[in-house]
Design brief:
The chain contains 7 helices and 24 strands. By secondary structure, the chain is of the alpha+beta class. The strands form 3 sheets. It has a 19-stranded mixed β-sheet that branches. It has a 3-stranded mixed β-sheet with strand order 21-24-23, covered by helices on one side.
């Protein structure tokens, strides 16, 4: 501990703001923050000495100003926190959550009560669930299917492996069977991992699908997807890998051995292709664009194709890594993600908050745990059957 106890806790506060605080330090800092009483040695105006909560807010604003000055010199990353709700942020730390909020208002907000209404009804987090449709129309519920070989399709054996993965193992038969198409689809509240016959690895987010040949026998390797899908494409200099969105005539991504993510949910309105490594060429109508790592192609449905020169790849890939991650997201964007993962409907009642949110939460949390954190920041909910109603 530093020589001056208050200096030590100020250092902990700054580590919290920077996201470098350890779990033990987090608990210690939270205990300190919630016991703060005005102290002239901390250089806070005497005019608020009789208002403990105002004193706490001023203290953290002072620390944040120091952090912002450091950021201007390139020393620190952007703080993920809701600017006008310092007291709420401290409460979140006390609860040992990792989600912080950011809003565009610049005036201090009233302190948020630690009391909250947690929904009495809960919805579990999504799991490894998917439906496999074989050539000919037979379907297999992978959630209930046993591990091992499920079917033979063309020259491939279809195998369910442990930990939610489907694999196509080429049989290398002497006789060539005709190529067949399979479709793997995840429901709302599901996700799944797929290993194609060429070694390409595919992850499907909730409410997504991929249609693919069981063996790639032509001049290229083509698949069709809906929803959100992440690819690690196996290199084959003799066969390009092509991804079509929605149909073989939809937006196309021409792949050259790479890692990328496509978010093409209908309710998002924009198809986003984000490149993590390698190269891809995105085609939309008569337009095309070559991406380099860190870039994102954004295609508005029936609109133009634009390129975001640098996006937060960590945010894009959060779903695959077991997280919700938001960067300046409005409440409707947040709730669309929750609706797909918890398999619920969402509606809005009264004025919809204009706050912007940023931060992380584990997707393994139940819906009630996630809503509980949002309610700490003055977003309220009511649950009716399988519907979450967002209220002022």
């Amino acid at each position: 501990m530093a020589e001056h106890p208050d200096k030590y806790y100020l250092e902990l506060a700054e580590k919290w703001l920077l996201g470098t605080i350890t779990p033990d330090e987090m608990q210690e800092y939270a205990r300190w923050y919630n016991s703060i009483e005005p102290d002239a040695t901390l250089d806070i105006p005497a005019s608020i000495a009789g208002n403990t909560e105002a004193y706490r807010l001023q203290l953290l604003q002072k620390i944040n100003a120091r952090r912002l000055a450091s950021r201007e010199s390139g020393l620190h990353r952007r703080m993920l926190i809701r600017r006008s709700s310092w007291a709420a942020a401290a409460i979140l730390i006390l609860l040992m959550t990792s989600l912080y909020y950011q809003r565009t208002l610049h005036l201090p907000a009233p302190a948020i009560s630690q009391k909250t209404t947690v929904p009495s009804k809960d919805f579990p987090a999504g799991t490894n669930r998917a439906i496999l449709t074989l050539a000919g129309g037979r379907t297999i519920d992978l959630d209930s299917a046993t591990n091992g070989t499920l079917a033979r399709q063309g020259n491939s054996k279809v195998q369910k492996l442990m930990n939610g993965q489907l694999s196509y193992l080429p049989t290398h038969d002497v006789t060539s069977a005709p190529p067949t198409l399979n479709t793997l689809a995840t429901p709302r509240g599901g996700q799944y991992k797929l290993l194609l016959s060429d070694g390409t690895v595919v992850w499907l987010n909730a409410a997504s699908s991929i249609t693919y040949p069981t063996t790639f026998t032509g001049k290229d390797r083509s698949v069709v997807i809906t929803g959100e899908v992440y690819f690690e494409v196996a290199k084959d200099k003799n066969k390009d890998f092509m991804v079509f969105v929605g149909s073989p005539r939809g937006m196309a991504v021409d792949v050259l051995g790479t890692e990328f993510n496509i978010n093409a949910y209908e309710d998002e309105g924009v198809i986003r292709t984000t490149l993590l490594s390698g190269k891809v060429k995105v085609h939309e109508g008569d337009l095309s664009a070559l991406l380099t790592p860190g870039q994102q192609a954004q295609a508005i449905r029936n609109g133009p194709l634009t390129i975001a020169p640098q996006v937060n790849s960590e945010e894009v890939m959060a779903w695959k890594n077991g997280l919700f991650q938001f960067e300046d997201a409005d409440i409707r964007s947040v709730m669309r993600q929750l609706a797909r993962w918890y398999d619920v409907e969402v509606s809005y009642e009264g004025h919809v908050t204009e706050d912007r949110f940023a931060g992380k939460l584990p997707r393994e949390n139940s819906a009630a745990a996630t809503l509980h954190i949002l309610e700490k920041n003055q977003v309220h909910f009511r649950i009716e059957d399988k519907k979450i109603i967002v209220m002022p």
